[in-house]
Amino acid sequence: MDRLIEPSVPTEISLVPQTAGWWVLGALLACGLAYTAWRWWHHWQSNAYRRAALGDLARAGEDPAYIATVLRRTALAAFPRSEVAGLAGAQWVAFLQATGEFDPDAAPALLRGPYALGVDSAPLHAAAESWVRSHRRPA
């Protein structure tokens, strides 16, 4: 037993990459993650008006005048004022149908609802919510 040699303790292995390729790959991954986070944040911020409109629609209940106001405000936030502000009647409905999923069956409630009593505004509420969720801003 006296002639046994005590084994030496191996040196610690570094967890830091030794080659430049790993540093480059790490930098590319960090840049990719930063870009993805920035795009997500930009998307989230650019849809703030949409989230606000959905909240307003939830509070609107069955009030067709308020639903029409929310639709108009949302369209003004998403599209240039020159395209939206002058639209009324059939042109307004055509705009809503062309830019998103707006049910044409809800058009009478949109056009007459704010001025008439006893209008069934449930289809208008559903169509407005669908349009707010589905409309696309110009590129």
Automatic annotation (TrEMBL):
<dbReference type="Pfam" id="PF14316">
    <property type="entry name" value="DUF4381"/>
</dbReference>
<keyword id="KW-1133">Transmembrane helix</keyword>
<keyword id="KW-0812">Transmembrane</keyword>
<protein>
    <submittedName>
        <fullName>DUF4381 domain-containing protein</fullName>
    </submittedName>
</protein>
<feature type="transmembrane region" description="Helical">
    <location>
        <begin position="20"/>
        <end position="41"/>
    </location>
</feature>
<keyword id="KW-0472">Membrane</keyword>
<dbReference type="InterPro" id="IPR025489">
    <property type="entry name" value="DUF4381"/>
</dbReference>
